[in-house]
Amino acid sequence: MSYTIAEIAKVIDAQIVIPASLQESQDFYHQCSIHSMATLANAGEGQLAFLANSKYRQQLADTSATAVIISSEAVDNCQVVALVMDNPYMGYAKAANLLNTTPASASGVHSSAIIDASATLGQNVSVGANTVIESGVILADNVTIGAGCFIGKNAIIGQSTQLWSNISVYHDVQIGEHCLIQANTVIGSDGFGYAPVSGQYKWHKIPQLGSVIIGNHVEIGASTTIDRGALDNTEIRDGAILDNQIQIAHNVIVGENTAMAACSVIAGSTVVGKSCTLAGLVGVNGHINITDNVVFTGMAMVTKDISQPGVYSSGMPAAPNKEWNRTNARVKRLDSLTKRVKELEQQIKELE
């Protein structure tokens, strides 16, 4: 599918600016076709690029893209058709949706799918090959379930939600509308609940009797695991986005519009507020509360409640090995240095 520059400009609400070298053809932007997107450095004829980060501005003058989405500050450096708007990154997002060629995860109901007779399927539902849908399941209109999925008893999936392949949705899980879940994710598996006991085997399993409730417009990346609650439910609320390989433990609540990057983990019964951001490899302790609008930078370790919005960090950035070894050696001497400072302070006090 291709679109003219004029059609794309209308969709992303951008102003078209044509360089002098192209103004000979007044209908250029009505006739020129855009079929895909690429970076400034690699785009060619018929492709649309964008500039949202000034780091790449030097590529603008030499790009071979047919058109570029840019801000007004960069127009003078652009030698091709410019689609000018205040937020080029949002323009990129809208244009990418328009030019998206990703296929549906399934089309129609495959003959090898196993669907219990008591399951309820809405209109225009698609179910991929070898998927199993158990009793009592409700799939709303326009739901798409990819190949090799398992949808457990009494699970509910809201309209226009799409699951990719090999996803397991356990019993009683509820997933809202317009959600997108990537391959190999597990939703509703048992939380890590055990009681310590004496004897040969030290741990007695505690059945996890809650479920998982996922709101509307939630996106979950590949190979992420969301455990069901022990008694109450685990919740991922409206608009949250979770990256790949994330672990959400039992009874966690992730607030509206919160974003979590890859390989982050949240231990049980923690509440994360609205519009928070967890960068990659963030670890959050259990049974704590994090207020709204908090940002944790990469590899932060969160061990206590956070009651004030802001940016929080922990850990030590990478450094040359020799420098890191020296710093580490100094850290190990902090106790003795602290003791020595106290002794000196006491000696000074005695001399006064």
From TrEMBL:
Lipid biosynthesis among keywords: yes
EC number annotated for this UniProt entry: 2.3.1.191
Pfam families referenced in this protein's UniProt entry, alphabetically: Hexapep (PF00132), LpxD (PF04613)
Catalyses which reaction(s): a UDP-3-O-[(3R)-3-hydroxyacyl]-alpha-D-glucosamine + a (3R)-hydroxyacyl-[ACP] = a UDP-2-N,3-O-bis[(3R)-3-hydroxyacyl]-alpha-D-glucosamine + holo-[ACP] + H(+)
Domain of life: Bacteria
Single biological process term from Gene Ontology: lipid A biosynthetic process
Pathway annotation: Bacterial outer membrane biogenesis; LPS lipid A biosynthesis
Domain UDP-3-O-[3-hydroxymyristoyl] glucosamine N-acyltransferase non-repeat region: 32-98
PROSITE patterns on file: HEXAPEP_TRANSFERASES
Matches recorded under InterPro entries: Hexapep, Hexapep_transf_CS, LpxD, Trimer_LpxA-like_sf, UDP_GlcNAc_AcTrfase_non-rep
GO MF term list: N-acyltransferase activity; UDP-3-O-[(3R)-3-hydroxyacyl]-glucosamine N-acyltransferase activity
One GO CC annotation: membrane
Active site residues according to the UniProt entry: H250
Keywords: Acyltransferase, Lipid A biosynthesis, Lipid biosynthesis, Lipid metabolism, Repeat, Transferase
Signal peptide feature range: none
Record flagged with keyword Lipid metabolism: yes
Similarity annotation: Belongs to the transferase hexapeptide repeat family. LpxD subfamily.
Subunit description: Homotrimer.
Physiological role: Catalyzes the N-acylation of UDP-3-O-acylglucosamine using 3-hydroxyacyl-ACP as the acyl donor. Is involved in the biosynthesis of lipid A, a phosphorylated glycolipid that anchors the lipopolysaccharide to the outer membrane of the cell.
Protein name: UDP-3-O-acylglucosamine N-acyltransferase
